[in-house]
Amino acid sequence: MSLIAMRSCLSEAQARGYAVGAFNVTSMDSLMAIADAAVEAHAPVFFAVCEVHFPHFRFDALLHAVRGVAESMPVPAVMHLDHGYTFPALVKAIRAGFNSVMFDGSALPFEENIARTKQIVDVAHAVGVQVEAELGNIGGAEGAGPGSGVALTDPDKAVEFVERTECDTLAVAIGTAHGVYKSKPQLDFDRLAVMRRKVPVPLVLHGGTGVPDDDIRHCIALGISKINVYTQLNLWAAEVTREQFTKEPGFADIPQLLLDIQARIKAGVMECMKLFGCAGQAASQTCTGPLDPSIGE
Q1: The one catalytic residue among 29, 36, 82, 104
Q2: Taking the model in full, what pTM does it have?
């Protein structure tokens, strides 16, 4: 197994009634935890790296580490730029070997979102890279609590958006948000059902942290094929850290702490994969093989 094209991965998931998890990588520890979980769960997986996290690590080093792990795994993987906002970031990810990028123009006016998304699609498709776009505004921010500005996706505009941009997948807003929920999210399942009937590409749910399990299952049953999880990884890491320093205030074995965090994230990601239904589904996917090495030149 090796890299798999995003759209074929998610189309297969939709056909078989499960969703693939996209988990954000912010360090080698999270990378190895996600990889080990996917292998043990025998699940396809998205390794997602978000543009807002570029300042937190050596960009080239981490992206090449993700590529090395993804290409060597015995289960299919997608290397995915999550929430790319700028053209240079999208190009950097493509040159680093990512075979999937997300352009997030959800805060832009409808016509400007279409124009900029189409520009990214044309560039990415020229080198065999697929594009996730977003219509509607999910709200909140990566690593922060849900904020204002949530705007649910209009199904008819979603159809027009996909037709005009030729994006490969679409992230839709149905009531989830990035970050930690202060109360139970109220999801618009009827809206999702209409979009699944009308929109011809796989649909993506962002803001997966904190959504009740039954709601997750219902979203998948209604046609969600990819679910993004980031905040929950941070919560697991923080939980392990608090427990360790509460138990032993003078603790200083940071390498052991990182291993404990990695083990907790791995266990949690495996639970997500079981919930999403993608555990045990690796064999159902067809891999594309390594990308053309000339892309990174």
Answers
A1: 82
A2: 0.90
